[in-house]
Amino acid sequence: MPVRNGEKYLEETLLSLVSQDYPNLEILISDNASNDETKAILSRFEAGYPQIKVFAQAETLSIIDNFAYVLTKATGEYFCWAAHDDLRSPRSIRAQAAVLDNHPEINCVMTDVVNFYDDSDETWPDRLEGIRLEKALDSWAEVRRAFFSVPISNAYFCIYGLFRTEVIRRVNLHVGIDFITNVEIPILAQAALLGPLASIEIDGFRYRRHSQSYYHQEMAKESKDAADRRRTIIRKLVSKIILGSSLPLPEKIGLVLPLISGEVSERIARLGTAACKTLKKRKSLMKKFSFRRAVRRIKNRILGVEEKPAGEKRQKRAGEKGKNREGRGGGKGRGKNRKPRSVLEAEVNLESPDVALLVERERERARLEAGGWIFNQPKRLKLIADRRITTLIDCGSNAGQYVEELKKTGWSGKIFSFEPLSDAYAKLSAKADAAEGWRTFPFALGDENGESTIQIAGNSYSSSLLQFSNDFKELRPDASPVGSEKVTIRRLDDVVKEEGLTFEGPLMLKIDVQGFEMSVLRGALETLPRVSVLQCELALIPSYEGGATFVEVREFLRERGFVLAHLIDGHANHETGELREVDGVFLNTRLVSPNA
Fold first, then answer.
1. DSSP secondary structure of 126-141
2. CATH of region 344-585
3. In whole angstroms, what is the distance from residue 115 CA to residue 117 CA?
4. Nearest by Cα to 150 from 388, 507, 438
5. Is the pTM of this model over 0.85?
6. Phi, psi of 47 (to 5 degrees)
7. Beta-bridge mates of residue 588
8. Helix axes 226-243 and 184-194, enclosed angle (nearest 10)
9. 2-217 is classed in which CATH architecture?
10. CATH 3.90.550.10 in the chain, residues?
11. Is 95 within 8 Å of 204 (Cβ atoms)?
12. pLDDT tens digits, residue range 308-317?
């Protein structure tokens, strides 16, 4: 256990360690020059428990150096790190050691995880199903991919797994980065090249989430672009680890390409929606940031190849352009006072959206789309990536369009899709059957279990369990009802329990149910605390009788710790420009807020 100033949780953690039923256990603690009550607590436990040995550091070590120090002092055949604020069940070490005893080919084993807050009784599980022992023994080459992805799945908990000591000592802990968040990814990538890492199905590890953790302290200091920078650095590190390994070349390429693809997707998303005023300018932008050039630049960075500097003429032209911008008092990079070049760049007050501004944005967007423009939503994708979403609940999937668009960005994870319409479900099911980790359910979600009649819209995706309003039918004749169908409705909380749904890593909930949003949310009260990101359609002007409104949904979610982080333009009256609905992306502050 490496520790510095851990007085608040240290005693509880030490009690969980000395309560282990494994008979031959040494507990080595490096006190990293603490200046609180940590020294006194450690002194008391060292005197009372012979298996505890404390090493006091005279000067403060870096976090990684302190982790490395305790590893150098270990004398046992097996080794694991223990954070000063997490807990272990009494039988966890025995169960993990038994796996290593019985399977000499396994190098590390981890249990499932129970997450909890330090100030509440709320808990939620992380099931490490993707790296189960049986899977690792059967097809390690396939399971190993989990440790080479960025962001990684909940396999990152293996950093606190039980390792073979001689194996983890072959791993370089000093990977040359200036941050702690995500440092486990290149460490585990190295370990995965040395042999299988696996999980067993017991709740052996309790992971405490609190504002004083290294992760939260580091996240609180991060700048806006820090997450992008961090992922880029980690991808580069993991790619170098793979390329420097003894794996066959085809396998190296197969592992590195998804990392390059993920980086390219994020770069393209960041170039995103800053609309150019002329087609010529747009073509120039696409030429400058071509996919081929982006791949080449990333590959050069991974391989350490320097790019050729720009020619004198290009540098001169860039300098003249900078001078001209200074003369005008504008231009990119001039600071916060730069006026938006387009209404699409104008900021929207998420607490009290300016409907007039949203209408103007919608008109401009419609005009550009009519001219052949294609818009993506880079901020939505960035929020998903930043929160390391690995599981998606897709409520109102229709034929799976949302999942398809998400997969095009390079995202891969577990998916649970819900669609009650039989025709749409048939298309959805066929797509899911051809994919990995995509499970579908042929019913709707609501706040009561039972049956109801759904109004089938001519365009399918506007179908609703509510009656269409008259003005919406007049405005959108293509969405008018063309029939109805009897469908089953179930509560999401009940489905999670009865269908045995497990969520690997951070969870996202997407709701697209045409006015039925509040019913879905009321039926998911037990699941919502686990949701990190939530995307939901919000009606400024309800298109369905009795449908949920923007304010109603926002206030319901706000009471449960969700904040509105992003708005996506939605359906509008194209005759008047009046905006009728938007999509909102909410973040659960109890899970992801830097200040939580």
1. E--GGGBHHHHHH-HH
2. 3.40.50.150
3. 7
4. 388
5. no
6. -70, -30
7. 562
8. 20
9. Alpha-Beta Complex (3.90)
10. 2-217
11. yes
12. 555 544 554 5
